[in-house]
């Protein structure tokens, strides 16, 4: 059961952790500030699924994160490896932790095949985007945890 008093779940790369596929971070000042204040819980679903750093970048083919959870779409790396199982495992693990910690909402990195909220890459590895969410965003929504992109953080701190 989630309670409104838990920390915000945040994409670890937004909090400054170097967990992206290429070993970089995607630091966001507001998210890092929340984490420093103990108001945010940084997690990386890709690492929780057992994927290494660095790793080949992955995109969802045949749908979005909802479709992946339903078994109708796959997560495929640029090298052609099917990493669907790792993405599902990591998303479910991170969502379970978020629920256990009472996270009321998650602030996630847009466009990621795990963390994307409204937009993800289209599965062709050509830089094109499509509407849809990542696998973690879908898993969180299914547990009743709201997901937002980084723009919403300022409102929380105001
Ligand atoms: S899975 Fe989420 S937290 Fe991890 S690197 Fe990708 S966007 Fe960042």
Automatic annotation (TrEMBL):
Cross-referenced InterPro entries: 2-thiour_desulf
Top-level taxon in the UniProt lineage: Bacteria
One of the Pfam families matching this protein, by short name: 2-thiour_desulf
Protein name, entry field: DUF523 domain-containing protein
Species name: Actinomyces ruminis
